[in-house]
């Protein structure tokens, strides 16, 4: 029985999830990223054969990890920014002075090879690629870079977490994705404000009269950058990106986050010279090989390659927060996965390891739940194409050659409806159990009647086997 406390908790979680989505635009404005419709610009996405895996990968693991996790009281990078509207709106502010934040690097001491724990569990659960925050906006690089002075060469005797991650990906059969933030708040700490909304640049919101804040969140006058500073910064970004491209063998994906005004540091063409089969998102150059809508689904089916990224944890924070170790249920994650795959995209879902690299208990539980679902229903999301949803189906649908897969989301009631079709299936059955499902034609539609006893609390998949003797015949079934 649902109690008032349950309802209140659910309402608060829904509010936090909305704030996660609202925070996206507010954060992107600061780091110089905006949504650019990929194929409205003259650009040729990478057609190298090594990029083909992305078309049907389905599921990727996003890993936000860095020095912010040391105390578990602030988000990665954004913890330094005072006046964050997305935290103020939920009454749970997680803010730290920039000077204190940067000192967290001195206490960042992860255990031996935590990436193996993350990625072995992910691979068993059906993930096919992973993306690690090699350097977030705070500027701390998880490898011993020769560029800059805020990386593991100075705090961890040159330990290379990027190298450990890449090798763990390969051991576990996952494609390698490296996140890199061109904006760097450590490098520019003396020439920027740590008060949200006090400076306009890069399309950011500016509030009239809001003071600029310094390293102690004290009001300051912003100092102009010295002559040649921007050019030095571009050289620094280029140097670090080149290290990522040349020191770790084959890299499958470069995941930029912002920096439209920094795109002269390195071009997509230059990146491809060193990694011909790489995929690059649109967030730095305004063009790229795939789009990445964040914390919200697109309003309509995207054209071309795309992935949806979102936070798995309950709160609106990407990295580890001690008060937000609870993760959304597998039903949420699998529902979003079904919706994304029905439109031909991949789902990049985020976790936040603790400072020592261990995972919150909920993550291991969720991995196990997803692993079990993949065991019986994974074929409905891998190596398939997006189906005619919602125009011809009331549930998300994916299409293989002879089978189409209809995903019944939790709480969905009534029959599955295939609109305006006279096609007769050869077989209709529950993918989890093999149980046959009754169907009938009514009003020009095909109705699939799924008994209540066949439903679970997760996503239930009904498979339709069409009578087909050659590839492509099923394309005319609806």
From TrEMBL:
Glycoside hydrolase family 29 N-terminal domain residues: 45-379
UniProtKB keywords: Glycosidase, Hydrolase, Signal
Record-listed E.C. numbers: 3.2.1.51
First-tier enzyme category under EC: hydrolase
InterPro entries xref list: FUC_metazoa-typ (IPR016286), GH (IPR017853), Glyco_hydro_29 (IPR000933), Glyco_hydro_29_N (IPR057739)
Positions of region (Disordered): 1-20
SMART domains attached to this UniProt entry: Alpha_L_fucos
Similarity comment: Belongs to the glycosyl hydrolase 29 family.
General function of this protein: Alpha-L-fucosidase is responsible for hydrolyzing the alpha-1,6-linked fucose joined to the reducing-end N-acetylglucosamine of the carbohydrate moieties of glycoproteins.
Protein name (record): alpha-L-fucosidase
Taxonomic lineage of the native organism: Bacteria, Bacillati, Bacillota, Bacilli, Bacillales
């Amino acid at each position: 029985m649902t109690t008032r406390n349950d309802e209140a908790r659910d309402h608060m979680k829904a509010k936090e999830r909305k704030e996660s989505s609202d925070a996206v635009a507010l954060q992107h404005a600061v780091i110089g990223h905006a949504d650019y419709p990929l194929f409205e610009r003259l650009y040729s996405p990478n057609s190298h054969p090594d990029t083909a895996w992305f078309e049907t990968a389905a599921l990727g693991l996003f890993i936000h990890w860095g020095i912010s996790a040391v105390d578990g009281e602030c988000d990665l990078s954004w913890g330094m920014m005072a006046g964050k509207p997305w935290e103020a709106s939920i009454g749970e502010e997680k803010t730290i002075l920039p000077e204190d934040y940067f000192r967290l690097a001195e206490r960042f001491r992860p255990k031996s090879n935590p990436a193996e724990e993350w990625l072995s569990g992910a691979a068993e659960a059906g993930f096919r690629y992973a993306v690690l925050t090699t350097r977030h906006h705070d500027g701390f690089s998880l490898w011993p870079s020769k560029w800059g002075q805020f990386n593991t060469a100075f705090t961890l005797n040159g330990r290379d977490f990027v190298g450990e991650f890449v090798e763990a990906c390969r051991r576990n059969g996952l494609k390698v994705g490296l996140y890199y933030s061109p904006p760097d708040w450590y490098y520019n700490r003396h020439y920027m404000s740590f008060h949200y909304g006090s400076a306009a640049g890069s399309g950011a919101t500016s509030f009239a009269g809001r003071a600029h804040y310094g390293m102690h969140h004290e009001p300051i006058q912003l100092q102009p950058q010295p002559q040649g500073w921007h050019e030095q910064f571009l050289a620094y970004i280029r140097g670090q990106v080149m290290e990522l491209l040349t020191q770790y063998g084959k890299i499958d994906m470069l995941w930029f986050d912002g920096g439209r005004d920094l795109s002269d540091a390195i071009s997509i063409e230059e990146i491809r010279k060193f990694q011909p089969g790489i995929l690059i998102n649109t967030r730095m150059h305004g063009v790229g090989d795939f789009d990445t809508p964040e914390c919200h689904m697109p309003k309509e089916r995207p054209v071309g390659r795309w992935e949806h990224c979102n936070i798995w944890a309950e709160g609106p924070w990407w990295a580890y927060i001690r008060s937000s170790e609870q993760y959304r249920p597998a039903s949420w994650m699998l529902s979003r996965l079904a919706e994304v795959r029905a439109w031909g995209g991949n789902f990049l879902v985020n976790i936040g390891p603790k400072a020592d690299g261990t995972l919150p208990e909920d993550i291991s539980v969720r991995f196990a739940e997803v692993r079990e679902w993949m065991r019986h229903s994974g074929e409905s999301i891998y190596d398939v194409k997006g189906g005619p949803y919602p125009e011809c189906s009331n549930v998300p649908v994916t299409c293989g050659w002879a089978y189409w897969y209809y995903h019944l989301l939790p709480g969905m009631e009534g029959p599955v409806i295939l609109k305006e079709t006279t096609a007769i299936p050869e077989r209709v059955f529950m993918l989890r159990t093999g149980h046959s499902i009754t169907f009938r034609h009514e009003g020009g539609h095909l109705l699939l009647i799924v008994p209540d006893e066949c439903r679970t609390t997760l996503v239930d998949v009904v498979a339709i086997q069409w009578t087909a003797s050659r590839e492509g015949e099923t394309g005319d079934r609806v």
